[in-house]
Write a structure and sequence with these properties.
alpha/beta; Rossmann fold; 11 helices; globular
Length: 299
């Protein structure tokens, strides 16, 4: 499923963030931690048409450079502890439309980690073997092991997004997948996997500009395909699919974070801070040394 979803033109509505029915915190909480600001409440109505994809929450680009550096330093330390302790498995899911910044986000955030303990999986068109199995088969194989922070660039959620929009399976099948996915993620968390899911939201104008930048830049032109325009024409359908996905699958044990992604610097800071806070809550520790190691003099 290498077609990435598009968002509806209704997402270009008023740029407001002081609403509650979309599951987000009000704008007056600007300096509140991103983890609380951007978490989608389970069962809440997500109104992408009113979501401000260019929100800054009172922050400015310049000062956040130092903030991001500090966040990345936290991530480096936390990942080193998680890798050494080999007690926790962490799955980071990143979804978004074409040009939402999934690759850029992964480059920045995973850049803070030792690649040895950070497998990144990009889910593309299923192979013949994968299609011969259930849709979660290939996903389960890529779930990180204890000690790893695994990153999914797109994920099992394509099976309620592109599969829905393109009517690849009957509605009763893709609709049943919401509960199946919730159960799958509950099983993973029960088995000790921490799941952190990010939806990167850009508006239609921002996507148009990013597409145009790709076309105009010879070094980025390879990223653009005429098929992207065909998918873009389905913006409204994808908007509905995204909204329902967020409402149906943001849970207390595997929440979605709806990230304003028009501004790369805000997106990176928000994702980095949320992930650092979630990892910090695991309280990872370096394991104790073997008996007799402390005080040893190496000749």
């Amino acid at each position: 499923m290498n077609h990435q979803p598009r968002r509806s033109s209704t997402m270009q509505g008023p740029r407001v963030c002081d609403i509650r029915e979309d599951g987000m915190a009000a704008k007056r909480d600007d300096r509140k931690a991103f983890e609380a600001l951007l978490r989608v409440k389970p069962g809440s109505k997500v109104d992408l048409g009113r979501f401000d994809c260019a929100a800054t929450f009172g922050r400015e680009k310049g000062p956040t450079t130092d903030e991001l550096s500090q966040v990345l330093a936290r991530l480096t330390d936390l990942q080193a502890r998680i890798w050494a302790e080999a007690k926790h498995a962490v799955l980071v899911v990143i979804q978004g439309i074409d040009a939402a910044g999934k690759d850029g986000t992964i480059k920045v955030i995973a850049g803070a980690f030792n690649p040895q303990g950070t497998p990144v999986t990009s889910f593309k068109v299923p192979s013949a073997l994968e299609l011969a199995h259930d849709y979660l088969w290939r996903v389960h194989q890529r779930v990180p092991a204890k000690g790893e922070i695994g990153i999914f660039n797109r994920s099992h959620y394509e099976d309620v997004l592109i599969v829905r929009v393109h009517a690849l399976v009957p509605e009763e099948r893709w609709r049943a997948r919401y509960e199946q996915i919730r159960n799958f993620e509950k099983m993973l968390t029960d088995e000790g996997v921490t799941i952190v899911k990010f939806f990167l939201a850009i508006d239609r104008d921002e996507q148009r500009q990013r597409f145009q930048d790709r076309v105009d830049d010879p070094t980025k032109r390879w990223k653009f395909s005429p098929a992207d325009l065909a998918e873009r024409s389905r913006w409204d359908d994808y908007s509905v699919a995204f909204s329902e996905m967020l409402r149906e699958t943001s849970t207390s044990y595997a929440p979605w974070y709806l990230v304003p992604a028009n501004r790369n610097w805000l997106r990176n800071l928000a994702v980095g801070e949320i992930l650092a806070d979630r990892l910090d809550a695991l309280n990872p520790q370096y394991p104790p040394a073997a008996a007799g190691v402390e005080g040893t003099k190496v000749e």
